[in-house]
User: Fold these one by one.
Assistant:
Number 1:
Amino acid sequence: MSSFKAIRIDKADKGTTATLTQFDEAELMDGDVTVAVEWSTVNYKDGLAVTGKAPVVRRFPMIAGVDFAGSVIQSAHPDWQPGDKVICTGWGLGETHLGAFAERARVKGDWLVRLPEGMSGRDAMAIGTAGLTAMLSVLALERQGLVPKDGPMIVTGAAGGVGSVAVALLSKLGYHVIASTGRTSEADYLRGLGAAEVIDRNELSGPAKPLAKERWAGGVDSVGSTTLANLLSMTKYHGAIAACGLAGGMDLPTSVAPFILRGVCLLGIDSVMCPLPIRKLAWQRLTTDLDQSKMAEITHEIGLDQVIETGPKILAGQIRGRLVVKIS
Ligand code: NDP
């Protein structure tokens, strides 16, 4: 294959352009493993890349797409042989390194995780970066020592990708899950994923008091800003919130009160540069702690030719659950 289909981002006079086009294989960047990409997914960051709404792309031309599953076709890395099924998420894919919305990718073998036994490439990308981030958040809360008897878990942006998987994971682990959403019409969907309560996100979006009534032992926040500040002010003594997103804003107008008066912990979650051993653990846990039938309910499949039109929708919070992209 001397050229392949890809979503190419180019710099324009004003901003950037995104086009589904042929990309020359000779233009692939350095790497010791070449992969036939089979599945990808649309994450919030992909929405930013294809619309150009935020400068996530830092090299031009770029192929968008932050995660893929596929089969190794060539390898100079000792861990990987042709035919191996692999997952790649983050590491700058779609930002600084040519990304996933393409039939071919060339990456470092050290970035790859073996597809877990019993999981298909489609299953892995239904989880994708969003689901991996939800799992990393749960692992961080567990490292903090939280268990279901400590009290409820709040999940914000609950009907989105990270939120939906976090609700499903936490409920399977036995937590009483409170799902916060702007789409209360999705209450049945969220209860189907395992939410015990569904609340309107307006309850958490106003200015936060330094301390408020204790409501939850912990949570997963994909929204940031005043929502995260409210979560912290309502977290029980010695509880913890895993902060992984900024769908509501990048600021954090809080005070030190929850930290110094209740011993609350704020746990930062990054999936992009996350070390390999933690990624491997997270993917392993995803095979046991995530109900595959629930994933089927939250996943919709689209083609590579539908990705660009999906960008504005994910930024507008209009996508429910996860979008998996069939590449080839
Ligand atoms: P989605 O768009 O699928 O979900 C985001 C959800 O946030 C929406 O569905 C909506 O949920 C809620 N939301 C959107 N806008 C607002 C707003 N203005 N105020 C309050 N809530 C809002 O995105 P993802 O789940 O893929 O990503 C969620 C966040 O996590 C993003 O900010 C993303 O950048 C970040 N992220 C971070 C990662 C990391 O490594 N730290 C990795 C992956 C994602 P509802 O309708 O239920 O209210």
Note: The longest strand covers residues 3-11.
Number 2:
Amino acid sequence: METRSLYPPVDPYRSGRLAVGDGHELYFEECGNPEGKPAVFLHGGPGGGVRPHYRQYFDPEAWRVVLFDQRGCGRSTPWASLEANTTWHLVRDMETLREHLAISSWLVFGGSWGSALALAYAQTHPEHVSELVLYGIFTLRRSELRWLYQDGASHVFPDAWEDFLAPVPEAGRDDLMGSYMRLLTSGDPDLEREAARAWSVWEGSILSLIPDPLRLKRFARDAFARAFARIECHYFVNGGFFSRDGQLIDDIDRCRHIPAVIVQGRYDVCTPARTAWDLHRAWPEADFRLVPDTGHTALEPGNIHELVGATDGFR
Ligand code: STX
């Protein structure tokens, strides 16, 4: 069978800014066909921002694709702000944006943190979701956060882990997320910068099956790391702002009727396959694709093949 690749690079036919309340303003863009079927792309992190290749998972003749930088990151302002920045603010922002664009329902596409936000949105506003395409499944359960930032991924990447530990004094290492939150909001610019870089590079180090030195450089830059580290850490010390551990999988019945594809890399060290498996067990109707030879990112060939296949199937 033919291996599917990304659609060619495309420029937005329109971009804009939208005030969403609490002093936050979002950058958004639309690409593809203005008369096409609507879709929205939810980026990861939280705090990761939109990248140009995210436009390329959709046939530009068929889809009207909306992309936006979530509160506090990318080109949205105030940059790196944690004020009025929670999962439920982002869910509301999606509604504000959807109404602004006069879209009645859209396909929701999201990976990693984007998969969590997609599930939170679909469980709150199922009537506005036509389909779901999810990959690198992340639901922010305590066990998932512990794996990433306390004891788990550290066993696979002990070398990168040493650099993650370095900014935290010994006494703070029993609670690394809490200690990082204090460093990232300490008010000392040098401490904040070093902590943001170490947090961001740790995550950048574990994302793909094959190492990517260019990604590590990008993750180390202040212009990316500060928003990414602060916003992620803020969401994670707050358990994603869910009312209970496991909420997104427990509440699957609210969105279970929506046609969905779930794509998960077997060797995803960032969000291990256990979570996607638990979601698959709770939601057997969704088309589950466990890719045998990929890690976390949407740029790995096997993940691209399944993700483009998913949107092609729904066009
Ligand atoms: N964060 C998982 C996540 O959503 C724990 C994520 N990790 N890296 C990314 O997203 C980007 C590559 C999109 C920045």
Note: The chain is about 40% helix and 15% strand.
